[in-house]
Amino acid sequence: MIYREAGQFKTSYASDQAIFPIPQDRVFVGVVCVAAVLVPLFANEYWLQAILIPFLIYSLAALGLNLLTGYAGQLSLGTGGFMAVGAYSAFKLTSAFPGLDIVVVFLIAGLITAGVGVVFGLPSLRIKGFYLAVATLAAQFFLIWLFNRVAWFVNYAPSGTITAPPRTVLGVMVTGPQATAGARYLTALALVAVFALLAKNLVRGRVGRAWMAIRDRDIAAEIIGIRPLRTKLLAFAVSSFYCGVAGAEFVFLYLGSAETLAFDIALSFLVLFMVIIGGLGSILGSFLGAGFILLVPVFLTNAPRAVGIDLPVALAKQLEVMVFGALIIFFLIAEPSGLARLWQIAKEKLRLWPFPH
Amino acid sequence: MRGRNVLVGLVVTALVGAPLAGIALAQGKELFIPLLVYRTGPYAPSGIPIANGFVDYFSLINERDGGVNGVKLAWEECETQYDTKQGVECYERLKGKNGGADVVNPYSTGITYQLIPKAAVDKIPVFSMGYGMTAAADGRWFPWVFNFPTTYWSQASAVIRYIGQQEGGLEKLKGKKIAHIYHNSPYGKEANPTLEELAQKFGFELTLLAVDHPGQEQKSTWLQVRRLSPDWIFMSGWGVMNQVAIKEAASIGFKMDHFIGNWWSASDADVIPAGDGAKGYKGATFHAPGTNFKIHQELFRVLYDKGKGAAKKEAVGEVLYNRGIVNAMFTVEAIRTAMAKYGNKPLTGEQVRWGFENLNITDKRLEELGMKGFTHPVKVTCEDHEGAGPVLFEQWDGKKWTLVSEWVPVMKDVVRPKLEAAAVEEAKKLGYTMRDCAKEK
Asked: Which pTM was predicted?
């Protein structure tokens, strides 16, 4: 009834090619954007610092992995390692150039990560599928090992920890202990919004189509004139860039200080699960997947107490892990294409509502 | 398609239900202390006894004395699995509850590093007892962080002094080979700079061997140990890493009485899996093991005889259980000190911080607490948040830990200058300024 396209005619190429061709969608997205900006006025610090900021950062990382795995079809288990590259290069950069705007630092850190990603993407030209996953696993272990062993990366701190120093964006403090949770949140939000828009346009254009062609059948893609070398390496570069920026934000906006353990293999799997559950090959899916993986454990931890059942913490934790695991399996059986597909179905249903055939 | 409907239901529940989290409760009438514990995961063998000891001491204070000077203690546990991300989530969730947390005990060096920058902003003191960032012991730079009775650096110096005593004098250390096997994390690396400096000073040959998290796989490390055949091994391990290391040492036939764990690497759970092989293994500590103290009789009388204890009765007196008691005792005494100034009412984090900074536990006070001989008196000052207390050494005889040394003093002359330099370095990263301790009080 409300959500219906009847009577909407596209009269120009621009309106036909818009990201959101239906006005109702545009209104909805606009409302979400405004709400997202206004959140710091209402949310308490727990919500901002422990849920929303990590949600935005994980979304960015998932977005990066989704470009590589969902769109270009290259399975990667090196996300944690690439995020570590972003974090450590941002740390080195900002300690070498303290005056540099922290967003610029994030972007340069992303570029450095892109370079590292290309190097570790080279084997993808020869090996495919699960074998490639194993090769990227090597990247994960090597990079973590490197940051753990070479003291130069942590400025010779005896503890091997990197700490986010106080830095500003346009004169507002966004990192370090004095930065408010609201400022951190808005920085993360701005970055993820820009990069999501970029990614959306990237996958709708020539580059994205080339990635999808390679993903669907690389020999056919080669025959129609897509160069696998450039396409695959570009996918690795762009994906690593996103992961690098996410890694830098992970330390600077979220954790405040970190050791290599924060970037271990578990992080790679976590981001991969986000992509799979959210929906491979979907920008929206990256956000939905990140939200699901982050929110459900928090919900499961707090749910028993909210209804008045006081479980011992160890039991609650074990139950949480078990229920969460069961949910993921159930999920993959009920909707193998991920949360993004659910969203699509909801939209289709809404189109016919309230009079379905 | 019923599966999908259930799915939609679940997603909606999660979205609607998640905001239930983090609802702040009204101003409390109690002293609220969040406990970041780890009763699951690879570090649970170390995490469970310490959490039980802590909770039991608090229960004892509430049950026997009706709280601290009449104000009840309230606490809530939050499971971190020794993971920094979960630790931050726990801290953010609990810091505002019951009118605000009074003090936080992170129980993990990694989480301590996360909380140090937050402490000054949230006005909640961090008490990392014998762990955390050593540099924070300089209270002029880090007013909100306390790591008494002794830091990792001081501990390492006491271990070297003890080894010197065993060899017949510190000068005999020259040319000896000492290996440090450490958990490859901020925690494990802490002792390294001190050991390096002492190696230069006393002329022993130091080898640093890292073990990666979680430490279940150490074959390559012990291969290196065999090749090196060191005279002494010092270990900074945690959780499952300790058991594996002790088993490996036993299997290569290393002299166990030349193998010393730091105070996080010498608990009952660490030695029992190695069986007889662990006999002779030594560990550092800052309190006695066992149940031969008045405080334990009180715990049995008030809690365990009524079935209110947190642990199994046999587990009372384990090394880490006792450490939990000591940690809780320091916390309660700091609150008591603060109450002497601010009155017997629920306190704010700022007031409790003052209590920590002016804490002075004398021998007499320890006797009143039923802890005479259990731990060492400690005095905290504005400059010195460490106390630089001496260290005891204990040995495993196959059934229980027994003390094998007197209180071994730390080398304050070596550690303190390094510590002050490190404090400047660390504080600079956070943009802190030094406060003038003469103006405090």
From this structure: 0.89
